[in-house]
Every structure is written in C-alpha cells, then in structure tokens.
Amino acid sequence: MERQQIFQRLKQPCIQLLHVTASLAQRPSARKELIQALTNLLATLRSVTSKPSALDAKLAEYAFVPVSQVLRISRHVPVHALELCLECISTLLRAGWGGGLEPALSGQLLILFTFLAKPSSAENGISATSEELQSLAFKCMAELLVESSRTHQGKQAITATANIPALGEAVLVMLDSLTDSNSNSVKLQSVYALKAINDAIADEDALASFLPRIVSSLTKVLTPTGSNRPGFRVVEKGLDVLSSLLVRLLSDAKTKDLPDKALSKQSGDSTKVSRSASWLQATALQIKIALANIFKLRDHDKPEVRKALLRLCLSVIRDCRTSLSLCTSMATETIISLAGHEDSNNSIEHELKALLSVDQDLSDLLRESLHGWIIALPRLMQSKDDHSRRRIIHQISVSLRLFEQDPTVLDEILADSLRDGVSAVFSDAKGLEELNEKAADAITDRSLALSSTKSLFFSPIRLQFKFQDDMMAEFRILIQELARSNSALTVAQGLTGSIDNGTIERRLASFWLSVNLIRDVAATNPSFDDFMDLGTPNPREELLDDLYSHSLSLLNQRDPFADTLWHFIALALETVALQARRYKSEFRAELTEVLYPVLHHLGSSNAALREHALTCLNIISEALGYSSAGELVVANVDYIVNAVGLKLAYGDVSPQAPQVLLMMMRLCGPSLLPYLDDLVESIFDALERYHGYPKLAELLFSVLKGMTEEGVKAPQLALTAGNDAKKSHHRKGLVTMDNVVAALKKLDADSRRRDEEENKEPKEPFPERPWKEEKTAEYEEQSDANDDEQQPPAPQTEEPPPPAPRTFTILLKISELTQHYLTTNSPTLRNSLLSLLRRTIPALAKHENSFLPLIHTLWPVLLPRLQDPEAYVVSNALDIVALMCEHAGDFMRTRVEEAWDLIRKVYRRTKQQDNRGKSDNLKSTSLNISAIETRMTKLSMDSPATTDLSRPELYVDAPTRMIWNSLVSLLCAIATYVTVREERFEEMLDMVDPVLARKDVREALEHGNVDAVWLRLYKKSKQDSGGKWSETGSSAKPVNLVGKIPVGRSHWHFVRV
C-alpha cells in the first residue's frame, strides 16, 4: 500500500516533466516550465527518500525516465535544468538505486557524468556549463561508484574490460579538474570521486595503473605554492586519499610477496600493471620525491591539515616501513615537527605518546632517529644553514618531550653534543663583548638609572647577532625538555665536570647548559629529597653546590676583567640566585661573601650585567624575606661598608667600589647615610692620594654628591614650602608724619621720666673724702658673706641638636672637607665641589650653630673662586655666596664688605665684554639729566612698558651672560638679607642699573632702600624721555617706571632737582 502511495506521488511530477520535455522543441518559452517541473520532481524525490528504503529499484527507474528524456535534449535545455537533473539522479543513487543498476546502465551513467564534469563539454554537446554542474557531476560519479561497489558483481563490472576506457577517462577528468579548476567545490568533489575510485576498484593491479598519475596530481595540489592554493578541506581529503592509496598498494603486507620480475602481460590486460620488486623500487623513488614536497605542509595553519598529514606519516612508518624505507626518516621528522607545532594544542603530541606506548616498533624507530640527531648536532651546528640548525634542535627537544621520563633514551653522548652545539653558536659571535672597559668609560651618577619595576627573572643572555639569540632560545627549549628526563642529572654532571676545561666557548657552553639544566630540573622534576631529608646525598644539590663554588670564585676574583667574558659573570649571578632560592633564610650566612660582589657589578659599564646584578639582588632579598633590595642593603650595610672601606684603604683604585656606594644610595635613599660616616673620611683620604687622577677624583666626588642628594631628602632636612615665608628684617619702610609724631612723643616721655627720677633721689652734700674709705669695711663684710653663700651659676640654655643628627653630621663633614679641594687644578672638580655645596647649604642652614662656623671655614677658599678663569666656576661661586647671604643674614655683613672689591672686579669683568659690543651704540646716546623735575603731579606708579633697560643691545657671549646672571642674583640676595652701608647700596644700584626695571630685581633692592630705588627709576625714566619740555613749560610725560604719588595741593611747590 505504501509503495502505491509513493508511485502516485511520483506520477504527477514525472508526467508533467515528460509533457514539458516533449513540447520544448515547439515552444522555446517552455524552459521555465521545464525548470519548474524538475524542481517539483526533485522536491518530491527528497520528500519520498527522507524515509529509508522507501524507494526501490523499479520506482527509481520510473523516476529516472523523465530525467533521461531531459538529458537526451541537453543541447537545448538551460544549464540550470541539467543541474536539477543531476541532483535528482544523486537523490536516486543515495536512495539505493545504484546497487541495483545494470552494468550497462552503470557504465552509461559513468560516461554521462564524465562528460558533464568536463569544462569543455559546453563546446561539444550542451548549451553551457558551470562550476555547480561540474561539482554535481563529480558528486554523482562518487555516489555511483560507492553504490556500485557495495556488491561483488558491481565491483567486477567497474573493472570489466568494456568499462576500463570509461573508467580511465573518468579518472583523467577527476585529476584534471583537481589540478586545473579554480573552484574549491569542484576540487573537493573530485577528491571525493578519487576516494570512491580507490575504494571501488577491487583489482589492485588495475588501481596501480592509475597510481603514477594520481600521485603526480595530488602532489601538485598538496605542494604549498603561492598561486591557486586550494582550500584546507581539499588538502585534508587529498592527504587522506594519498594515505589510503599508499596503504592499499605499497604496504608491507601487500608487497612482501611480489615477484622479483614482472609477469608477462596477458591479452586483454594491457591496462593493468604487473607489480614486481623492480616496480616497487622505482615507485618508491618517485613516492619519496612526492612526499618530500608534501611534507612541507607541516607548518600549515589548519589543525585538520596537520592531523591528516600525521595520518599520512604514520601510514608510511607503520604500514610501509619496508617498502618505503627511503621515506621513513622524512616521515619521522615530520611527525616531530607536527608534535612540536606551537598551535597544536598538544592534541597531536598526546596522540603520538599513546602510539609510542603501544607501538614498540614506532618507539624504536623514533629512538634511533633521536640518537642520530644527537650525534649529528655538533656537525650541523657548525654549518651556516640556520634553518637546519634550528630544526635539529627542535627535533631533539620534541623527541625528548615525547619520551618524557624514559631512562633508556639519554647517555653521555647527549652532554658532549649539547656542549659542542652551544659552543659552536658562541664561536659564531666573533665580537663577544668582554668586560675590559676603561675607567674613563665607567658609568657616572648621571647614567645610574635603576628600573622602577622589581624584576625577579633573568633576561636571556644576549649575543652579538639575532640569529644566535634565536638559536639559544631553541637550545633553551631543548634544556627544558631534557630536564623532565631521569637522565637529566647524569647529563648535568657531565657538563659541570667540564666547566674548567677547553676553550672559552666550550667552558661558557658547559656553564650555560649546567646552570639552565639544574634550574629546570629543580622547577619541573623535583626529587623526593626536596621534601624530606633522608640523610642520603642529593645529586642535584651537590651539582648546585659545585656551581656555586665556581661562581663565587668568578665573582671574587681579584682582576675580574682580565680575560673573562661578561657572560661568565652573568651566569655566576644566576647561580647565586639559585642557591638563595634553595636555602631561603639560611642563605643569610652567605651574605658576607656574596652581597658585595653582587653590588659590585651594579657599577658595571655593561647594561646587561647591571640588569643581571639587580635581578640577583631582588631574588636574594625575596628569598631572605626582605620587602625590597634596598631593605636588604640597609640591613646588611656593615658587610658592604667594610668591603668598600678595605678596598679604599688598600689603594684599590678600580671604579667599582665608589659605584657600589652610588648604587646603594640610589637603592636605599637617605636611610643608608647614617651608616656611611666612616667611608666619608676614607673617600677623602683616597682623594688626597689620587688627586692627580681627575677621572677617579671626579668619580669619588660623584659619590659624595650622591650622598648629599640623598641626604637632603631626609624628612627633617627636606625643604618645605614654609621656608618661602622667610622675610627679610632689613627693609626700610617709608617715613610718614605719624612716625615723626610717635618719635617726638617717645622723646618727650623719656625726658619726663628722667626728670621724675632725679627729683625722687635724696640730695646729699658734696663728699669731702673718698667714698672708698667709708665703704671698705662694708664691702669686706659683704664679700665674706658672699664667700659663705655661693650663688648658683646662672642656668645655661642647652643648645638644640641638629635635625636628623647622623645624616646632618655626614653632610656637614662633606661640606667642611671640600675646603681642601676647592683649589684643585681640575675645573670640573672645582665645579663639582661648588655644586655639592649648593645642595648641602640649604639643609645645613637648619642648624644655625653648625652652619655659621661652616661659613667661617669655607669663606677663605671660596673668595678666590670669584676670580677663577672658568666662567662656570665663578658663576657657581657667586650662587653659593648668595645662598650664604640668604641663610646667614647679617652674619655675612662684614664678609660682604670684605669681598666687595672682588665683587667690583667681577662686575668689571662682565662690563668689559659688554662695553666692547655696545661702544658704538653708546656714542649715539646722550643722556640729559639736567631737566629732571620732581613735581609730584608728573609722576606715575604704573609698571614699565619699555624693555630697553633689561634687554642686551648686542649679543653677549654665554660665559659673560652666566656670570652676569649670577652676579645680579648675588646683589639681590645681599640687598634682601644683609644690611649694607648706603654707599655700598648706591654701588649696587649702579651695577644692576641695566636690569633694575625687572620686577624681581626691583623688589629685592627695595628691601634695602625703597626711596633710593624709586629715585633711581625716576631718573632713568626722565633720561629715557630725553629731557624734552612741552610748550607749557612742563616736561614731557616720562616713561612709567616709578610709582604714582598722591597729587599735592595747588599752592604746594616742590623743589626741582
């Protein structure tokens, strides 16, 4: 009943299609109706076949009849109609029709599909073609072969003599489309058709006849090229087809019984290949060439392709190990590359590990390959092919990871090969930097900049070229994989034993490998002894102890820069960090030997070594429980101070000792200074001994400067905004009538008080004898009484201590000791000393009782610097005198008076240069001062609008400008903070006359005498106006440089000057 219902459902669309097809020749417009009829039939077929086994062979033939009628007139139907026809046939084949086809009909369909799949079919029989039509033709071809091969009769029919030409043509069309088509869908369907051919042909000799062409075409598609690259699905399925084809024809099971010679071909079998040993040998050579190109897909970005390539490699290794023995090494290398691919997500690696655990033959083969790679490592590392060198290191690394903890893999050969390989990389670095920098190139305080981040991991040791760094990164991965093996410590023992043997490159290679291997073993493969002490020796700890002893000898050697590469020192620092992490708090006892050498290399001129030393210090501080490296240094400063003091005392003139101090201060800040009291005298003693070496002396003074820079940061000494409120008490205010009245009242009150006191005194007669005789006895009695009753002494006020006493004492001592070196021949050293004093004076001024004696000490050696031949030294000296005036006030009054002649000379020094350039302009300028009028109605208090008085008329050289600016600052400081005589003040006005209009200069001098400043500005304004009078007899309006005074009354008359 159900079959009848299906027939009724198929009847209407089939009849409709037959009717449209029959009338298509008479009605060309019926093409749309044809497409609609085919669409209805396809929809009905899909609906019917949705239920399995609903359509039998008879019903399928019934549905095929109208479709075949359309195909008969394919030249006149649109290409879309042909596509619908193929879709209907595909639906019928999938429904089970293919298994019941007659061999003749099967052959005809194969010919039809082959014809429609050809791109040239549009020229030979149909109206047009399309990529969709070709794709559907290959799809139908694959389904036809699959359904036909389900029965033994169908398989026999495919390779029947009558069908061989059609089969060969179909294979050729598949391969041509695979290689030449631009459509990925066509390529993909042709690959599916090839797979169906491989599965459908039961005769292996017949299939072997197609092998060369199939392998050639697949190789062309699977070889990565820049043009016409297929989609990854095409590549994936192509690899699967090649794998099945090789297993089908070239597996050891299929080829073990092949005859030595080919059998004679029988009649009718000319299309088949007679396989033999010679055929196998020739085929294997061609397969090797093809696989060499196909294996380049190991770096494909799609994991599906890499897994398909892995299946191909495993097929070659496991199934074709004997027949394709020439390809096994390539396949093994490709497997290792696939397992170590960075995007593999370990899926391929896990799959390989599982295979190795169950397939002993595969494990043995990979182990043999690993042994060969280890032996070849030194030789390849000496070649110039970077790709080959990196590849073999990668292969060894991945192989070690695949075997994990298999103890039978490694032996002493690996240690020798690793050493030779790494030493070959080091040998390529012809320009390895050595630590033999001159003292002149040593870093100074300007270049000592520490990173703000707390680094706890060492950066890789850099070599001269980038390719060497890349190679060492590959070796680093290899070491990490080796560390997981149980034989790692055996290899490390062999490497550690050769640290002192061989060339520099071999020793460095052994040291680098040992340090990194032991570190990775401790991190990735901890032993049971790490958690429980059983009293048995721990090989890893013994190896680390040996490396630590060797590292200490490198760090503490007397002349570390003689013939030692900086890489040795960096590795020694890494070893110290390893030992600190191992012992943690117990490592504190080693600080006496370790801490100074580590700090010593903080002063290295090699930036990479400085970074290593700082990282090592951070690791040590963390291992010992300190919060920072600075806290570690402060807590153990006695070790460092003793070491530095001994070096300075024994005459060690290397720059590292001062640089260690400088780095320590950068790390620790002001908290370190109280512990450096003794070192200040040692530094000055060294200066006294080596003052003839300017560079060394400058470096030592940079340390002292660093001490002062950090010392003034102490909270008690740091300058605050409150200091800006300090006002001068020397300013003379304006005298008003109220002041005069108050002064007269005070004089009158004092006079009346004296008169009253005289009136109250009793009047006595004029004495007739000396007062002394009368009062002698009285005085003696009083003196006896005073002797009996000793009066207690008047209480003395206790002197307040200085702020931050220990830090203050160091700053004071440094400042005092500079007096002995201000006369040095080195101008840079003199300038450094003056810069040092500029930084310490504001902090030392906090304690007046210490600061004033310091001025008294420094004054005799500071004054000659005002006549120094170097302009920047004179400028610095003037600034320091200004600072002294600012912080000592009237204490500097007599000293300013004493130095006034020198100040005049400094002024004349600046004017000599200035007058040379201005002489021509001054000749054309005449100043008329005879017509200055002091009438208050003509005066103004507006700010000056002109800049002629402050700008130079001509260029002034930089040294003169530097001295002039400092001189103006000094005169302003004297006027503000020091009381000077009137004539001195007038001279100061003369000196600063060109810049008196500047606001800061005017305000500073007004502290001394505001009236004199006003008068000078008024005169200058009158001079600038040129003394020109108006018609009314009054002077022209002056330049507004002076202040406005209230206008007097009309009957007041002021004197004219």
Automatic annotation (TrEMBL):
Residues annotated as domain TTI1 C-terminal TPR: 762-912
Pfam families (alphabetical): TPR_TTI1_C, TPR_TTI1_N, TTI1
Lineage of source species: Eukaryota, Fungi, Dikarya, Ascomycota, Pezizomycotina
TTI1 N-terminal TPR domain: residues covered: 7-342
InterPro entries: ARM-like, ARM-type_fold, TELO2-interacting_protein_1, TPR_TTI1_C, TPR_TTI1_N, TTI1_rpt
Identification of the protein by name: ARM repeat-containing protein
Domain of life: Eukaryota
One Gene Ontology term, aspect cellular component: cytoplasm
Feature: compositional bias, Basic and acidic residues: 748-778
Recorded coiled-coil stretches: none
Organism: Clathrospora elynae
Compositionally biased spans, kind Pro residues: 792-805
Ranges of compositional bias, category Acidic residues: 779-790
Chain residue ranges for the region called Disordered: 748-806
